[in-house]
Amino acid sequence: MDYQGQQEQEDEVYGGDLPEEAYMESDFDSSADADAAAAAADDKAKELENMKKRLQEIEEQAGALRELQAKVEKEIGGAAPEDSTGASAAQAEKEEVDSRSIYVGNVDYACTPEEVQQHFQSCGTVNRVTILTDKYGQPKGFAYVEFVEVEAVQNALLLNESELHGRQLKVSAKRTNIPGMKQYRGRRPNPYFGSGRPFMPGPPFYSPYSYGRVPRFRRPMRYRPY
């Protein structure tokens, strides 16, 4: 009796009859949560697939860049020995030509290559005569004579200080210029400094006036009677 009264009192407090268990279970639907979880899993799978594709593209680009770099390095490495070989061959050829050539200085400005060739014809077979000119086409006063034989250079040196057009020639063997190096030329002595004599100070000079004072020159006054 007491138990039934207590249960009825509790039902009145909570607003009437309690719902049945079957009705409460029918209100809860778990299919929506399952669909959401499946959609999230699909999104993650797609994102992972996209990341894999991007990584594969990056690796392909890096491989192409490595191949291009290796190709460029191979071309540069293959061209450098050829250039060095060609430069050494050109330098050797120039040295061989210079060994058969002479320098002729103090050449008259009106002298022609034919006249220079005739002057050195007795030394050997002249292959070429070059008279240097400036940018205006005027002769610089010296020339180079190239012979066919190397022995002709020694014969040409015997014509040093010989005259051509009334001028004394300066004949010497031509030297080979090395690229990137200049011939050292000593400095000309300064006639106003470094004459070789030690510096000797002169006698001291004393001013007739005291220190800091300068004589004051006054203008002479004219006589004015009025």
From TrEMBL:
Superkingdom, natural source: Eukaryota
Matches recorded under InterPro entries: Nucleotide-bd_a/b_plait_sf, RBD_domain_sf, RRM_dom
Question: What are the record keywords, sorted?
Answer: RNA-binding
Q: Which GO terms describe its molecular function?
A: poly(A) binding
Question: Which stretches of sequence are listed as region Disordered?
Answer: 73-97
Fetch the Pfam families from UniProt.
RRM_1 (PF00076)
- RRM domain residues are 100-176
PANTHER family, sorted: EUKARYOTIC TRANSLATION INITIATION FACTOR 4B/4H, POLYADENYLATE-BINDING PROTEIN 1
| Name listed for the protein in its UniProt record | Polyadenylate-binding protein 1
Q: Which organism is it from?
A: Sesamum calycinum
